[in-house]
Each structure stands twice: as structure tokens, then as C-alpha cells.
Specification:
Layout (H helix, E strand, L loop, with lengths): L1 H4 L2 H8 L3 H27 L11 H25 L1 H4 L3 H32 L6 H24 L3
Helix pairs in contact: 2-3, 2-4, 3-4, 3-7, 4-6, 6-7
């Protein structure tokens, strides 16, 4: 980790006028896309926003992965700037665990939506297991956001 943190790129992130602010801005935008769309999808699955067609949810999750990619790239760049701190930070490690679990749930849910959402819209109820998955996803992404903020202060 020390070698990563002492790299020229990490030094640029830490010391340049644009490095850290640019990566943090990209990270915020990526998070807004990923978490915002996941929240819409999951809230729809638990019964909110009934005017949003169920068949559109799979496409929303597809777009959410663009936000995830932006977050992954920007997050890795931010990580390099303080790798030795982040790797031992409880809030950061909890954030990463929540992000990975939330992303795993989104990846699991997307093909289910592609295959089943039209049937649910035509009179079938959204299964309880899918609703539970959506609720768990909301909790995980909330934990990721909060612990991500705590990382800067704890």
C-alpha cells in the first residue's frame, strides 16, 4: 500500500489543484447515478412510485452500472492518495463491504427484472423475496453512503 500511496499518480491526486477535487466530484456524480437509480428501482419494487412501469426497471439498473463504473474509477484514484489510511479504516472497509453487497444485489436483480417484470405488470404480484431484496439493497446503499461520509471524519 505504501508503494501505491507514494506513486506519482497518488501524489498528483493529493497535491495538485485539480486531482482530488476532480476525482471527488466524479465520485459524487457516479454515486448519484448508481444509488439514485437503485433507490428508484427498489422503492418501486416495494410498492412506491406505482406510475413507473415495472418493465423499465431493468433498463434503469443498466444505466446505474455507468454510475458504478464512474465510482469505481474515481474511487480507486481517491484510494491511492491515502491507501495506508483507507485499508485500516473501519468505516471505509464497511463502506466497501456494503457497496460490494449492494452491487451484487443489483447484478442479481437485473436478470430477474428482465425476465419477470412484464408478468408482474400484467397482474402478477411482485414476489416477497424480490421485495425483501429491494429493502436490503436500500439499507446497504444507505450504509455505503453514511460510512463513506464517516471515512472522511473518523
Amino acid at each position: 500500500m505504501e508503494a501505491l500511496e507514494s506513486s506519482a499518480f497518488a501524489d498528483w491526486v493529493r497535491t495538485s489543484f485539480v486531482g482530488y477535487p476532480a476525482l471527488l466530484t466524479l465520485h459524487s456524480v457516479g454515486m448519484a447515478i448508481m444509488v439514485g437509480l437503485v433507490f428508484v428501482v427498489c422503492l418501486r419494487l416495494v410498492g412506491k412510485f406505482e406510475s413507473i412501469p415495472l418493465a423499465s426497471l431493468e433498463k434503469m439498473l443498466g444505466l446505474a452500472w455507468v454510475g458504478f463504473a464512474v465510482n469505481l474509477i474515481s474511487g480507486l484514484g481517491i484510494f491511492t492518495s491515502q491507501a495506508t489510511f483507507y485499508i485500516t479504516s473501519g468505516p471505509f472497509l464497511l463502506k466497501i463491504a456494503a457497496v460490494l453487497a449492494g452491487a451484487g444485489m443489483a447484478a442479481y436483480l437485473r436478470p430477474i427484472l428482465k425476465r419477470e417484470a412484464v408478468g408482474w405488470a400484467q397482474g402478477g404480484a411482485i414476489p416477497g423475496g424480490v421485495r425483501n431484496l429491494a429493502m436490503a439493497s436500500l439499507v446497504l446503499w444507505s450504509v455505503a453512503i453514511v460510512t463513506g461520509r464517516f471515512t472522511a471524519y473518523l
